[in-house]
Amino acid sequence: MTGGFALTVAGLVIRDRAGIAVVDGVSFTVARGGPLVVIGETGSGKSLIVHALLGLIPPGFSAAGTIRVGDGPPIDAGSTEALRSLWAREIALVPQEPSQALDPTAAIGRQLSQNVSPARSAEALAAVDLPLDISRAHPFRLSGGMAQRVLVANALASKALLVIADEPTKGLDVERIDIAIDLLKRLLRDGRSLLVVTHDPIVAEAFPEGTIVVLHDGVVVETGPTVQILAAPTHHYTKAWIEAHPASWPSHGDRDGASRSAIVASNLAFAYPGGRPLFEALSFSVSRSGVLALVGPSGSGKSTLGDVLLGLKRPSAGRVFWGEVLPYENRCERRRLRQRYQKLHQDPSSTFLPGRTLGRQLADLKEVVPEQGFEDRLLSVMDRLRLRRVLLDRFPDEISGGEAQRIAIARLLMLRPALIVADEPTSRLDPIVQREVLTLLREIVDEEGLGLVLISHDRALVRAVADTIVRIGC
């Protein structure tokens, strides 16, 4: 690839099934051997732009404008086959959703070896701090952070000169974020070019030598040298985005320790058959109107512990109490209380049916919670979560990851739970919406007297939201 630009996007317009422009006239360039970072609020069109570059816009959507990779000819943004022909050879992707990118039926090593040699795959896994034996594991055995590192390894192993990283640090702990950023910088040192889509200020700040593009409502509202924009933004949205980092939130101290417990864990341990324990001798309680955070490195068992608390996985040792009920010892009571002990998944898109509109899927809840005023309450919850009502007419693959997460929260709140286990609930949200959603969750915890278990890698966020913190694998 020769010339000044690795990627040129001109006048990109993406319209939804109703003909509404959700990305409107976006233009930018990625310098050869340089980084460009795209930031913006949830639903601003960041991931749709990535999908358009790869010829993967959702069915019923349309794209116009031109896309040019390197010195190649301009390609019409609606020419999906021409754009898909560039995969692996010209463009590599680090996608946002590991569960959708990895084949659940194939071992990791087999998937990485589809386009490269086993030796190159092993080198890439080692580069992202994954042991070689992970190549024999299937995706369902990996934590979200480990799966994300596999995707970075896959891009590292390819020979594409342009790498598109869509939320490359989502779900990673602080140490792994640093590793992922270092790997992306390694690609730059190798002469590759980077287009990084992120909501994480840490990622944006990591590439001060590059260019930043700020999206708001599908339009570029500010662009320029990254160091300049972050130091002195001119648009109100960019200013609010920078100021919304959790480090600036007010912190919460321990609250009423005498309140009733929503859940109690006593001496819990868990190990997969033939494997070493993920955790042992864990004891804690979550009070009603209380927030407990589970923190620890990727692969330490945080998500597994959340499943144990919800009765989805049986502990190797110890007990779980739902109030006065022992769910593992009383199946009938566990079934009766199942609705009130709910999980907010790390990957919300996997919890929605692909061929059914979101509005119909939310309406299905009326069979579980047949209350008067259901529709009014749903719209009220959506308004509080900053969800546009037009989203009810869309299918799951027609919304952003952040919109999917907020709709998942709305669906869960309609069940009036006693306890929520939230697994990285804001990992797909930009800083402004992240603060709004967690503030709302905190208000609901306080007002409705439910317990919240928050699984997170973000130390600043945990300090701002949680009453107590339990560390595992540290």
What's the quick description here?
This protein is an alpha/beta fold. The chain has helices at 46-53, 80-84, 98-101, 108-112, 118-127, 144-157, 174-189, 201-205, 226-231, 236-243, 302-309, 331-337, 358-363, 374-384, 401-413, 431-448, 459-465, and strands spanning 5-15, 21-31, 35-40, 62-69, 75-76, 91-94, 162-166, 193-197, 211-216, 219-225, 261-270, 279-287, 291-295, 317-321, 341-344, 419-423, 451-455, 468-471. Helix 5 packs across helix 6 and helix 6 (144-157) packs parallel to helix 7 (174-189).
Describe the structure.
The chain has 474 residues and is α/β, with parallel strands linked by helices. It folds into two domains: 5-90 and 160-243, 3-Layer(aba) Sandwich (Rossmann fold); 248-471, 3-Layer(aba) Sandwich (Rossmann fold), CATH 3.40.50. 32% of the residues lie in helices and 24% in strands. It contains 17 helices and 18 strands. The protein has helices at 46-53, 80-84, 98-101, 108-112, 118-127, 144-157, 174-189, 201-205, 226-231, 236-243, 302-309, 331-337, 358-363, 374-384, 401-413, 431-448, 459-465; strands spanning 5-15, 21-31, 35-40, 62-69, 75-76, 91-94, 162-166, 193-197, 211-216, 219-225, 261-270, 279-287, 291-295, 317-321, 341-344, 419-423, 451-455, 468-471. It has a six-stranded mixed β-sheet with strand order 6-7-8-3-9-10, with helices on both faces. It has a five-stranded parallel β-sheet with strand order 15-16-17-13-18, with helices on both faces. A hairpin with a 5-residue loop joins β1 (5-15) and β2. α5 (118-127) packs across α6 and α6 (144-157) runs parallel beside α7. The longest helix has 18 residues, at 431-448. The radius of gyration is 22 Å and the shape is globular. The N and C termini lie far apart (45 Å).
